[in-house]
Amino acid sequence: MDELVREWTAQLLDSGNAAALIAGLVALVLVLNSTTWLPLRNVVTIAHEGGHAVVALLSGRKLNGIRLHSDTSGLTVSTGRATGPGMVFTLLAGYPAVSLLGLGGAWLVTVDLAHVMLWGCVALLAAMLLAIRNAYGVLSILVAGGAAFAVSWFATPAWQALCGALLSWFLLFGGLRPIAELRRKRSRGRAPNSDADQLARLTGAPAGVWLTCWFLIGLVALVLGARWLLLMPQV
What we know:
Layout: H1 2-13, H2 15-32, H3 34-58, E1 62-68, E2 74-79, H4 85-110, H5 114-129, H6 135-154, H7 157-174, H8 177-187, H9 195-203, H10 207-230
Antiparallel strand pairs: 1-2
Helix pairs in contact: 2-3, 2-7, 3-4, 4-5, 4-7, 4-9, 4-10, 5-6, 5-7, 7-10, 8-10, 9-10
Organism: Saccharopolyspora hirsuta
Keywords: Membrane, Transmembrane, Transmembrane helix
Transmembrane segments: 20-40, 88-107, 113-131, 136-153, 159-180, 209-230
């Protein structure tokens, strides 16, 4: 056990892993600090609503549009059967999408494909822009897409990797906080039409079950993503 701890410590002191660790600490502060979390939560909302939209299309539903609001809430509207697997999976997808995107980004950074991650973000945001139906949503997508494009086009590979790691960490940590926030809102009776409550009405499984599932998915993604970013050999 001591030998394993020494090996992990040596890996963490590697320059690449140290940079990833610092990026993780910065991301954690950004998520925990209310002042920075409020504006940056838009990034999480974009990923959340994008998850709803992608799964709605994959399940055969028609995507009518996405709205992003200045209070960092969002709404994805699709048409199709009001019940059944398509609707269930569409509602289910939002919260895990954030953590899974962070996990995917962590893997790409680890295998030295941060530029692919950044260009993927630009492509996904460009596609999402076509479905946005309000001015604030358009502005949010353009700002996020512009930032990803600027890093992918102008930054050196080292800075691309660092920014990719920071974004991955932010999504991994940021995927968990909204679940905790929703739990608190529900305990005060302030979110009767949340994704969890709609799933409860559709499936009969209590909303708490869905909250627990989302939290566990996010936690597993965080642990695995952290291992990839910190403990695997740098490419």
